[in-house]
Structure formats: C-alpha cells, structure tokens
Automatic annotation (TrEMBL), chains A, B:
One Pfam family cited in the UniProt record for this chain: Hydrolase
Keywords of the record: Hydrolase
Entry's family note: Belongs to the HAD-like hydrolase superfamily. S-2-haloalkanoic acid dehalogenase family.
First-tier enzyme category under EC: hydrolase
Entry-linked NCBIfam families: HAD-SF-IA-v2, HAD_type_II
Catalytic activity: an (S)-2-haloacid + H2O = a (2R)-2-hydroxycarboxylate + a halide anion + H(+)
Protein task: Catalyzes the hydrolytic dehalogenation of small (S)-2-haloalkanoic acids to yield the corresponding (R)-2-hydroxyalkanoic acids.
Ligase keyword on record: no
Domain of life the protein comes from: Bacteria
Record protein name field: (S)-2-haloacid dehalogenase
Listed EC numbers: 3.8.1.2
Amino acid sequence: MKALVFDVFGTVVDWRSGVARELAGYLSAIGRTDLDPFALADAWRRRYQPAMEECRSGRRPWTRLDVLHRENLETMLADHGITGADPQDLDALNLAWHRLDPWPDVLLGLHRLRRRFFLAPLSNGNIALLANMAKRARIPWDAVLGAEPVQAYKPQPEAYLRTAGLLAMRPDEVCLVAAHNGDLRAARKAGLKTAFVARPTEHGEDQAIDLAPEEDWDVVAKDFVELAAKLEA
Amino acid sequence: MKALVFDVFGTVVDWRSGVARELAGYLSAIGRTDLDPFALADAWRRRYQPAMEECRSGRRPWTRLDVLHRENLETMLADHGITGADPQDLDALNLAWHRLDPWPDVLLGLHRLRRRFFLAPLSNGNIALLANMAKRARIPWDAVLGAEPVQAYKPQPEAYLRTAGLLAMRPDEVCLVAAHNGDLRAARKAGLKTAFVARPTEHGEDQAIDLAPEEDWDVVAKDFVELAAKLEA
C-alpha cells in the first residue's frame, strides 16, 4: 500500500453540522427561524445522489458538484416555501460545502499517516471545493484528486481506477478510507484495498446505517489516529 | 487576484542540476563517466517541447509527461551510444523529474504567498510528478493542477483557461508566475495576470534567454520572497 485516498463528506468532515450551521445563519437572515436547519441540511443532501445519477447514467454530461449543489439548494428551498431568494446569497450559501470542519481525530491522524503514505481525497466533490476546504481546515493532502480530474462519480469503477492511474499506481497499491460500506464495496470490486472508519453521528443521533463494517475490510479502525497506529504510520 | 499558478521546471525547481545529479549517478554505475551529465540533461530536455508538440498538434492523443520523459530518455541515451539499458534502471532514472529541488527562495516565498493567495502549479508535469516533487521538497501547494487535469499542454490557451475554470475563477483572478516570457505571453493572451521571476542560471552559466522581462508584465520580482513583498503577502 503506497497511497491512502479518502472519502470526504462524512468520513473526513462533518458535513451535516457544517451545512446546518450555515443554513441557520441564512434562515435567521431571512426571518425563517421556524425551519430546522438540520432538516434542511438533510433535505439538501438527499438530492445529492439523484443529481450525480443523472451524470453517471449519461443522461447529463459530467457536471461538477458545485453546480449540482447550487441547483439542489434552489429546489430544496422551494420545497420549503423559500423562493425568490437573492442569487448571490445562494451562491455564498452554496459554498457551505467548502467550509466544513474535520472530525476531531482527522488532522492528527492525517499528519501521522502522511509520513508513510501518499494522501489524497477521493471524493465526489470538485477540485475547488476540496482545495478550499483543505486550505481553510489545514487538511494536509499531497494532491487534490476526486471526481473532477477523473470525470466520473463514485461508485462508478472509473472513479477508483482512473484515480490509481493518476497516481501511477496499481489499484492494489491504493487504499480507500471511507465511513460507507457501499463506497468500500465498489472500491474493492475495482481492486483497491479498503479501510473502514465508522462515523456513527454523520447523519445525527439516530443514525441507522454504516455503524459497523459489513465485510472483512482490510483495515477497520475507530478513527484516523487508530488507523495510523494500525498502519504503523 | 485570488490565485497564483506557477510554472515549475525552471521557475520553482532547478531541473538542470537535479537531473544532472541523477544522471551522474547512473553514468557512474554503468561505467560511462566520460559523458557529461549536464550535457545529457540538456539533451534530454531538448526533446521535451517536440514530444509535447505531437500532442498539441493532435498527431498523438494527450499523453502524460512521465511517459514522454521515459521515451525521450531512451532516445537521448541511444544518441549517446547507450543502448540495452535495464528498463527498470531507466524507470527509476526517469523519476529524477519527481525529485528536483526548489531554488533557495521558493519555500519561504510560497509560505508567505500562501497566506494571501491560493497556490497551485500550472506545469506541463503530470499530477504524480508534481505531487511527488511537492511531498519530497515540502512545497506547500493548495492543489496540484497542471497539464493532466486539463488535458492540454502550455502554451495552448486551454491549459490556462481550463485551469482558471477548475479553480472556479475568472482568468483575470489568476496570475501565472513564470521565468519564461513565452509562457507569460500565452497566459496574458488567455486573460491571466502575469508575474516574471528571472532564473538566470536555469540553463547554466551561459544562459542567453529569459534573463529579463520582455513585456510590461503585471509584476516583476527577482525571486519569490520579493514577489511576496510586492504582492503584500
């Protein structure tokens, strides 16, 4: 194993709290504090997979996530009775996804892992999103990869295989680190190694999915610091 | 100006000394210390533009620089009477381009510039090359861009324009920093801002080109530390 590539939303950063925090500010500004920002964050996120599926299926050319997020935001707000918003406000709010905070173990874990492995995100986020997030949160990636340079959305096999290609490595020299069993299944099918780190509050206190590994993943760790210890980094 | 993107070979790193150093080790190992490693480095580099031109012209599909370097190495060695080399030795020697050292002002200058600007390479090098170089030399890029994610070789306009697109910026929000007037001319034509930093020994003591700015570039600085001062970073 020479490189670790990371799922980002949920695995590296707590997207739900971060997006809800920025939605709360927006709702307050427009006088709609009757709405629950966490419910809106969940509703925004529910449109994520269907929007990417349009691209995966070929019904729509590959389109970067910032654009999909922006469209989904407008639809989600309309579903909650918010229309006619200032487009510049929505542009700014859309960048909530660039300003997410890592889980508490992430920076220490990555700094240890980086001594031994090449580290990069393998996220469906676009390059500007991932790079702005990393700059703000000081996430020490060695390169910013993901869906955009490979023009494919996980779990398409091309997303994993072309990423290994960009690194000039064989798939089995690359390990995907993710909090999602489905992502790991697709990575394993493509020939990558797999590491599972549970994030039991990604979806809030009542989370029912991805609480435990569902296959014998190559590594299972409770957080990134334990992952570094298990990988002797 | 929100982002600075950098030419790498010559502007950020001293490719000639670095490649000659690794060639010297190889020539010593095969008992050919009669050959001048600097002359071989120059000969290797002379094949760089013609190889990319095959891709720019469309005669060959876009091919990453590691592959072009590897082909050029074999041809260059044959020109000097070295044939039948161990292919694994040549694979290793080809990675000399991943192991180049920055000029002495680079790291301090970039650490200052990074506080104010988004920093990325805009090099004809491929992602693995640039990322391995940055990891080894601790170059603090915010993202690793370049020819590979945009599938175009400078000075094609697409190389500059698509890079601004990946950053989600207008061309005039991006400034190319380069030691080469030709690169800056193409960047300006594409609408980017331009900064010239002379590297008067890139080609050795007798360098005759790119010793001074040939147009009124937006910024001219003697090195990256002065560049940071001029940009108030």
